[in-house]
């Protein structure tokens, strides 16, 4: 303990001999590090973990916005848009499901759709067969497949990107 106090005392004496410009830079760094710690705390969720998985990111408003921007920059935003459309569809009143389901099919599922998502033929055919009898969980399987595709493909790239840093800076 005495050794630690001696080291700390000599460190403080050493700091006083530094030019004031260095001390100002050090103070600035301390403020930035403090802000980073606050940001990390704000990103924490109820179970005490920072968002390191796709589901947590999608449930974070700012994280979702930044992830969308990342996907847009890679021209692969359709998977996220499909996933969000399915989330909206699932909670929609039953009288709106036919319209919303048709929109989802024509925008994301149909092979000629403008934002066609990458689904296997079996899932695509199963959806085509049930389009006349829609229910709240019609798109669940397709949505899960796209979620897993994002989790394996685009989300790891996002974690390595500069945009991930933007999530931390934005909060």
Note down, in words, how this protein is organized:
- The protein has 2 domains: 2-43; 54-171, Regulator of G-protein Signalling 4, domain 2 (Orthogonal Bundle).
- Helix content is 73%, strand content 0%.
- The protein is built from 10 helices and no strands.
- The longest helix has 24 residues, at 20-43.
- The protein starts with a helix and ends with a helix.
- Mean pLDDT is 78; it is low at 7-12 and 31-50.
- InterPro entries: RGS (IPR016137), RGS_sf (IPR036305), RGS_subdomain_2 (IPR044926).
- It comes from Xyrichtys novacula.
- Residues 53-168 form the RGS domain.
Distance between the termini: 39 Å
Order of helices and strands: HHHHHHHHHH
- The H-level CATH homologous superfamily of the largest domain, spelled out, is Regulator of G-protein Signalling 4, domain 2
The biggest beta sheet, please?
none
